[in-house]
Amino acid sequence: MEICIVGTGYVGLVTGACLAEIGHRVVCVDDDLEKIATLKQGRMPIFEPGLDNLVTRNRREGRLSFTTDLKEGIEAATVIFICVGTPPLEDGDADLSAVEQVARQIGELSSAYKLVVEKSTVPVQTGMWIEKTLKVYGGGKDDRFDVASNPEFLREGSAVEDFLHPDRIVVGVGHPRAERLLRDLYEPIVSGDFTCPTHGVCREAGPIPFVVTDIKSAELIKHASNSFLAMKISFINSVADLCELVGADVERVAEGMGLDRRIGRAFLNAGLGFGGFCFPKDLQAFVKIAEKCGYDFGLLREVDRINELRIVQAIKKLKDHLWILKEKVIGVWGLAFKPDTDDVRYSPALALIHRLLAEGVAVKAYDPKAMERVRQQLPSLLYCQDPYEVASGADALVVATEWKEFGDLDLPRVRTLMRRPLMLDGRNLFDPLKMKAMGFEYLGMGR
Ligand code: UDX
Question: Where does the signal peptide begin and end (predicted)?
């Protein structure tokens, strides 16, 4: 099918590349001239495992192209995905101005039937507004457009994998036409009959669940799913606080809980809490949406409060052991909001570093992928070439992002490099008994 993707950020670029990979012809549009120029030179504006190969190969085979011209982009397309940013406003509401602008332009520029799909995370009832906008700016014809909601469940660091091998595909539609088009579009993924770039062979497992709902329910599934996952994390972080008070180990508790299939072990990792450009803003947006609809979602406000508290707890632990933080040297391993990504938006590591700098601490840091993104916003940080340089001369070391390479380091060497062998393991990456045996003063989160 002929597809147009509007917005080439994490969601748009992955969606475009993967739809091309399963055989569609995709034109990706963005008004960011530099981003499109980068993509046309075959370079990636973001780091996502496997994305560069996908883009390069599908461009070469003529199924994927990039342009800044929306009219050109939507000309041949039957299905148009809106993947523009919906960043948070001051009051937590989502900024939908980019979505409105694209909907208006699609209305004005379309001369044939289009299925307009909202993939960006949008508040419930946005689909209704897109329908109205298309009608008003599209000349008022009733059957010129359909709108659908097709929320993405992509995790950064595994977005390509999550797109090609999803747990489920959710589409919210208002007309059978829209459902038919989306079933055709996703058929290769549902049946698994495509040669996967990661796994090669076709899927052996059964078909992927294809969930069809009304538009509002589909919009709610995304916010409800993300908020539930965030709630799971804040729940285990509260249990971690209790574990410290009673002398239990939250990792053991999470293990015992997680074996219950109704609970599941994933997203029960205690630590510095959740960051990234999804959970924090989706949670606040969901609370705001509920409030605007007349419901006070107090449970989710508490999820947010517990998460904010993680950084306060970490600083307190450091003070309990260092007494005075001012002029101490503290090393931080990890800047990205989680491993396998270069994204530092809403990163707990940065929230902690801002607090340390405010206390007059000399902060050294290293991250395998995210340092370039931080240099501009944090010039007063000492950027190191490797984790050992971070440890050299440090009064304390904080594990802020659980990059796998940190788990493989020569820890006795790290210990000798440090001025004081104090480690705050913000992601419970290491084993407390082994660390103590190696002579570290080891502090975990909930252990
Ligand atoms: C999330 C959702 O997982 C994804 O489905 C949605 O489409 C977008 O938002 P993402 O934000 O990329 O994906 O990262 P995710 O892997 O969910 O982690 C989010 C944050 O939670 C990270 O800061 C991570 O460190 C933290 N986290 C995750 C925990 O603190 N504990 C856990 O057990 C799991």
Answer: none
Domain 2-213: what homologous superfamily?
Answer: NAD(P)-binding Rossmann-like Domain (3.40.50.720)
Residue 234: name the closest of 135, 140, 323, 313 by CA: 313
For 66-117, what is each residue's pLDDT tens digit? 999 999 999 999 999 999 999 888 888 889 999 999 999 999 999 999 999 9
CATH of 228-443 among 3.40.640.10, 3.40.1110.10, 3.40.50.720, 1.20.1600.10: 3.40.50.720
Return all residues near 5 (Cβ < 8 A) that are at least 6 apart.
12, 13, 15, 16, 19, 26, 27, 28, 29, 80, 81, 83
Q: Ligand 1: distance of its center to the CA of 10 in Å?
A: 14
Question: Can you give 263-288 as a three-state secondary structure string?
Answer: CCCCCCCCCCCCCCCCHHHHHHHHHH
The pLDDT value given to residue 199: 79
Decide whether 2-213 matches 228-443 in CATH topology.
yes
pTM for the predicted model, two decimal places: 0.94
Atom of ligand 1 at shortest range from CA of 154: 7
The number of the ligand 1 atom at minimal distance from the alpha carbon of 158 is 12
Domain ranges (residues) in the chain: 2-213, 228-443
How many other CB atoms sit within 10 Å of the CB of residue 267?
17
CB contact burial 28-58 (16+ within 10 A = b; e otherwise): bbbbeeebbebbeeeeebbbbebbeebbeeb
